[in-house]
Write a structure and sequence with these properties.
The structure holds 3 protein chains of 3 kinds. Chain A is mainly α. Chain A is built from 11 helices and 1 strand; from the N terminus they run E-H-H-H-H-H-H-H-H-H-H-H. The chains are: A mainly alpha, B alpha/beta, C alpha+beta.
Chain lengths: 313, 745, 177
């Protein structure tokens, strides 16, 4: 028998008996960041492809979710900070080694850009909108002139944001479950699928919905592939990563991961998407909500399980 | 920056060479915590003290921050007991001061004993109440019927009070519940007791044999330090313990003995040492008496014989005996401290003493040195009245060799008995929680029931306070002066305890309490000084020091009266025994009608499904007295019951699960205890750390945490020689269904 | 200058004095700790081995906590000592998650706290509180660049290991085995 125990009564709050430093706001923040990234990615992409008029909802309307999601996400992040009065310190340094740091800057850029993007399309919702002040009107003119540049900025930063939500976790070597390079693309994919799903949910245009259902199906396929890939990587790795993977393969998070994330969040909506494409009539709301739900659960499961995974010594 | 640097400049004395200004000081003042500032504050702000968390009484320094709050305590580098390093309990002594559950005001009981029904009283009222009762008891039964139980510095003053009144009855549970058998055995063998700190030259030993001592878990500071030094120097450690103790983990040989068979191993070791002629021949020849008797006595006690009893491989018994002999005389068969196990403990300790004598370690470097104690003049006072009778007269034929008042004896003699004409009527209890200290709680409660007066002096609302008529809240050692510490060591030393802060709440030092009572009882002349600091100053001036000097140095070391730490080669040594020699054959025991040489007796074994209840210490706690200390509960807030995996499998137990324990007499643990499944314990016994399972709700941090071993020790194996209360003959089993356990109770 | 600490597992008795001494020295709130003691038991009765380790921040040469800190509150001070500057710390918890040794904790005041090797004492020529108090003298502290420092001398003499070196953090807390 091998016994290993702390005999000095250590009970550091949120660290013992296992790490629980990040609570619900962090997965929520990661989800909202990913969602916003996905939405903005498609908006910028279809705009740059010159398909703005065919995909009105994707380019002009759904992006209004993005700044809201980002701001709520940032609020959640702020809520989880324990030394809130010093929040501003985040913006006194750019530390490229710290995903938290460049992530904070990235979010600043993309939030600003998304607000501008929405401002440019505000007449979608308020046709009579008037900016009133001269300088605001000048700004609108300015950004309309450089909308392409703005779209490029959004496209690039959306990808960075999507990847960042994964890298934030994967940069932690100390948590074997997070410490996989698959996590960046996986979280990006998850964010994109959430973005696509919300467009399907929000669009009234049949063609637009069909296109994004297809896109969603492809991304869900990629996600599934990445998850399998991730587990193969874990199981072929060192003891700590094998043990991390075991959290999902018989461990405490097995049920919630395979049922909520994989089945309800990926396989079922993918199957429904496929049926839709085959001509069956599936209410769009079902796969859409499932994808969003799965994407959110994915963050929760990963953030919580990852904190349990550790180097044993 | 310059002012900042001046602020942190430290005088050269103290914890190491100080290089102020050597390194650039880049921290801002705001970055330092109060505790850090206290370290950096000038060292002459520190107050000398000696620790009161255990009996080792290490000298140290109390540090305060600039607001005057006590922050930390460190050891005094000059002190031989601690060499500048306090143990966890000493370091955590601050918690005793800060504990918000402390007793705050004098209390007088309003209802039945044990109900914790008290009202707050003024000191005047409390003293008047006590004085009146003491006068009444003295008049009706004689002052001898008042006894003091003490395990603390304050006991000194109550002891003076009692002696002044005419009662010699000062009992310390540290005797019959702890080291009494050892003292009697060493007295019988070498003519001297071991006392505290024991005269063990562990630092220079080449072979340390621990038999029933879990040094390192019992944090006898100086000894733990010296064991570490010995490890550094490559000493061999041999540990005999049914449990894989911490010390066993550091040992070259661990002998996982079957519990209750130690005597057989000791005798077999003697057999090997004598038959293989490994003993120190010149030493035995010159200093000892009765070698031939002993040789004959152990002739048949071979390792093979012992194997059948102890389960220790005979080759290991031989190897370890040779290992000891190779190291001789720098070898110590450790006498242990808490030695009241099976009722034949004086004899077992005799075996330990004899083994040391054969190896020639007494009086030798790396064995037992000759300690010296400083002679401090007592303040002048009239002679104490001669008591008309003592507890001894009540127990004429038993415990013949007890050389001090037995705590359990006083307890027994408080219960009316037709065979006795004296019965104790009043108890003063200072700094000892008799409920957790004395085995057989039912007996203690019966005795308490018979009392006319029970005064408890303590800093914490320990269980015993619940039974008191009057509770007197003592301030902690950090808030008071006490007598100078005078203990034996390699060099004579004295240490000062001075208050680092004013007493919190309405608490007072014992000196003041005893003196106030003395005033009311008409014996004030035994307390010639009104203030204790004046008494200390007077005493210090007699020996060429002063309060002023001691406040600066805390500990003063004197030269030995002679350079005789060890025996000189061929020195003629007179031992204070009947024969003037080291008695391998004890004339004292023979005369008193006991076995002159130790004999192995078989002790009861656990019935099927039961396990021997072994208990011990954790390094971060002192008995039950620290279990509410915030700094120390942080390290350990409950005990667990250690269970071998084989036993765990049988009972389907897993680590972390709570169970109840029930002993052979059906006594159930008051609270459930957590299981620790571990290979460190034998399959025929369980183990738990003593001092938990507090039943007093006022101890908010430790109430109901863990189980109390004392609670489960209902069977006491009394040592006929000196009255020691053997506590290792109890067996427990598990109740795994907690709900069922609640119903059963 | 490279500060390091070595803990002799053969002498440590697990008394946890280091933990209390740290607590009173550095005002670590009750209920928290910057250092702790681990017991490892291996084998089957009666063939057993025990290892006792007083553990704390490893003051890593390649400190993930410093790398992931978004504000620079976690930084490396002289001698490689890893510190947190409370007034720069936002309490995001990234450093806590990044430490494979779980050596950091969120201080109730909000910032992240950890072992400082008692830099305030070290700067004044004293030993860290845990080293100074240890009754078994099982801890050695000093500058690895100084071949005569306690820690250099003992590491030359004794076999030692670090914890999870495979995490790539280059820990500077050594265990003598």
């Amino acid at each position: 028998m091998n016994e290993e125990l702390i005999i000095s009564g250590r009970e550091n709050l949120m660290v013992d008996p296992h790490l629980h430093i990040w609570h619900w706001p962090i997965p929520l923040y990661l989800f909202l960041g990913g969602l916003a990234a996905g939405i903005l990615f498609f908006a910028a992409l279809f705009y740059l492809m010159g398909r703005e008029n065919e995909y009105r909802t994707a380019v002009r309307r759904i992006p209004f979710i993005a700044p809201i999601a980002l701001i709520v996400g940032l609020a959640a992040l702020f809520f989880d900070l324990r030394h809130k009065a010093f929040f501003w310190q985040l913006y006194t340094a750019i530390r490229l080694e710290s995903p938290m740091s460049w992530g904070a800057w990235t979010l600043l850029v993309i939030t600003t850009a998304s607000v501008i993007w929405c401002a440019l399309h505000i007449r979608e919702f308020f046709p009579e909108w008037d900016w009133k002040y001269r300088w605001l009107i000048d700004l609108e003119t300015f950004f309309n002139k450089y909308k392409k540049v703005l779209a490029w900025v959004i496209l690039i930063y959306a990808v960075i944001t999507g990847i960042y939500t994964g890298i934030l976790l994967s940069a932690f070597n100390a948590r074997p479950l997070w410490n996989t390079s698959v996590l960046g693309p996986l979280f990006l994919a998850s964010g994109l699928s959430a973005g696509a799903a919300s467009i399907v949910l929000g669009s009234k245009d049949k063609k637009e919905r069909l296109t994004f259902t297809k896109i969603d199906l492809i991304i869900l396929g990629v996600e599934l592939f990445l998850i399998i890939h991730m587990f193969m990587g874990f199981l072929a790795s060192t003891r700590v990563q094998i043990e991390a993977a075991e959290l999902f393969l018989g461990g405490g998070y097995t049920m919630v991961f395979w049922i909520f994330v994989v089945f309800l969040g990926i396989i079922l909506p993918a199957a429904l998407d496929l049926m839709e494409l085959r001509g069956y009539h599936i209410p769009a709301v079902i796969p859409g909500v499932l994808v969003l739900f799965g994407s959110l659960m994915f963050r929760f499961v990963f953030v919580f399980a990852g904190q349990i995974s550790r180097w044993l010594y | 920056m310059a002012t900042r640097r001046q602020f942190i400049r430290i005088s050269a004395m103290g914890a190491g060479a100080v290089m102020a200004g050597a390194a650039g000081f880049r921290l801002l003042a705001s970055e330092l915590t109060d505790g850090q500032k206290a370290t950096l504050a000038a060292l002459n702000k520190r107050t000398p003290t000696y620790c009161e968390v255990c009996f080792w009484k290490c000298a140290g320094w109390v540090y305060k921050d600039d607001k005057g709050a006590i922050k930390k305590i460190t050891g005094n580098a000059e002190d031989l007991n601690c060499n500048g390093r306090l143990c966890p309990r000493g370091t955590g002594g601050v918690g005793m001061y800060h504990d918000e559950d402390r007793l705050r005001k004098p209390l007088i009981r309003t209802d039945k004993r044990g109900t914790q029904s008290f009202r707050e009283a003024s000191w005047e009222e409390a003293f008047d109440y006590i004085a009146e009762k003491i006068k009444k008891i003295s008049a009706e039964h004689g002052p001898e019927c008042i006894a003091l139980f003490t395990h603390g510095s304050g006991g000194k003053y109550f002891s003076t009070l009692l002696r002044a009144l005419g009662s010699p009855h000062v009992a310390a549970p540290s005797y019959a519940q702890c080291r009494g058998p050892r003292e009697v055995a060493f007295q019988a063998t070498f003519g001297e007791t071991l006392d505290s700190p024991e005269r063990l030259d562990i630092r220079d030993t080449k072979c340390l044999v621990l038999i029933g001592s879990h040094l390192g878990e019992n944090m006898h500071n100086g000894q733990v330090q010296e064991m570490s030094d010995a490890i550094d120097k490559g000493a061999t450690i041999i540990t005999v313990d049914p449990r894989f103790s911490t010390a066993a983990g550091k040992s070259k040989y661990w002998l996982p003995i079957k519990p209750a068979t130690d005597m057989a191993l000791l005798l077999a070791w003697m057999n090997v040492i004598i038959t293989e002629e490994l003993y120190d021949k010149a030493y035995v020849e010159k200093y000892t008496f009765g070698f031939e008797y002993l040789k004959e006595h152990v002739r048949n006690m071979t390792p093979e014989w012992a194997y059948g009893i102890t389960t220790i491989d005979p080759t290991v018994i031989r190897e370890t005996a040779r290992e000891m002999a190779n190291a001789s005389p720098a070898v110590i068969v450790h006498p242990g401290r808490h030695v009241v196990w099976y009722g034949d403990d004086t004899q077992r300790m005799r075996a330990v003493a004899i083994l040391n004598a054969l190896l020639g370690s007494w009086g030798r470097r790396g064995g037992f040195y000759r300690p010296e104690t400083f002679e401090l003049p007592e303040p002048p006072h009239p002679a104490y009245p001669t008591p008309k009778r003592t507890w001894r007269t009540e127990f004429p034929d038993i415990y013949k060799l007890a050389d001090t008042v037995l705590a359990n004896g006083v307890c027994d003699a408080s219960v009316p008995d037709p065979s006795r004409n004296c019965q104790f009527k009043g108890w003063i209890v200072n700094g000892t929680n008799l409920m957790e200290t004395l085995p057989n709680q039912a007996n203690t409660l019966r005795a308490i029931d018979e009392l006319d007066l029970l005064v408890v002096v303590d800093t914490m609302p320990m269980e015993i306070t619940g039974y008191a008529d009057v509770v007197l809240p003592e301030c902690t050692y950090l808030e008071r002066y006490d007598d100078l510490r005078v203990v034996q060591h390699r060099k004579p030393q004295i240490a000062l305890r001075a208050p680092a802060a004013e007493p919190m709440y309405d608490t007072k030092p014992a000196f003041w309490m005893a003196r106030e009572l003395a005033k009311r009882l008409g014996v004030i002349e035994y307390f010639p000084f009104e203030k204790i600091e004046d008494q200390l100053d007077w005493q210090l001036k007699q020996v060429g020091s002063s309060m002023e000097e001691m406040m600066k140095i805390g500990v003063k070391t004197f030269d030995r009266s002679a350079d005789d730490l060890y025996f000189y080669p061929d020195e003629d040594v007179e031992f204070y025994t009947g024969t003037g020699k080291i008695e391998l054959y004890s004339s004292l025991l023979a005369d008193a009608g006991f076995d002159p040489m130790p004999v192995y007796t078989k002790h009861e074994e656990p019935p099927a499904g039961y396990y021997r209840l072994n208990y011990g210490r954790a390094p971060m706690h002192t008995f039950s007295r620290t279990s509410n200390n915030p700094n120390l509960t942080d390290l350990m807030d409950e005990n667990s019951v250690w269970v071998n995996p084989r036993v765990a499998k049988e009972w389907d137990l897993s680590t972390g699960q709570y169970v109840h324990l029930v002993n052979q007499d059906g006594k159930r643990s008051e609270f459930p205890i957590k299981v620790r499944v571990t290979e460190r314990i034998r399959w025929d016994s369980v183990y738990m750390v003593h001092g938990f399972g507090h039943q007093e709700k006022k101890l908010r941090r430790c109430y109901g945490k863990g189980a109390s071993d004392t609670n489960l020790i209902t069977k006491v194996l009394v040592d006929p020689i000196m009255g020691g209360t053997g506590m290792r003959g109890n067996f427990v089993t598990f109740i795994t269904d907690l709900a069922e356990a609640e119903v059963a109770s | 200058m490279r500060y390091a600490m070595a803990v002799d597992t053969k002498k440590c008795v697990g008394c946890s004095d280091c933990v209390v001494a740290c607590q009173t020295e550095n005002d670590v709130p009750i209920g928290y700790c910057r250092d702790w003691v681990v017991e490892v038991v291996d084998g089957t009765y009666p063939r057993l081995e025990i290892e006792l380790r007083s553990e704390r921040c490893n003051h890593c040469g390649n400190a993930p906590c410093v790398r992931c800190c978004p504000t620079g509150a976690s930084h490396i001070a002289e001698g490689g000592i890893v510190l947190v500057e409370p007034n720069k710390c936002i309490g995001c918890g990234a450093c806590i998650a990044s430490c494979p040794y779980d050596a950091r904790y969120p201080h109730p005041k909000g910032y992240v706290d950890k072992c400082t090797f008692c830099i305030h004492r070290v700067r004044e020529g004293m030993k860290p509180a845990c080293v100074a108090v240890c009754p078994t003298k099982c801890m050695y502290f000093g500058d690895l660049d100084d071949p005569n420092s306690d820690v250099s001398v003992i590491l030359k003499k004794r076999k030692h290991k670090t914890l999870i070196p495979e995490a790539g953090t280059r820990p500077e807390l050594y265990f003598l085995i």
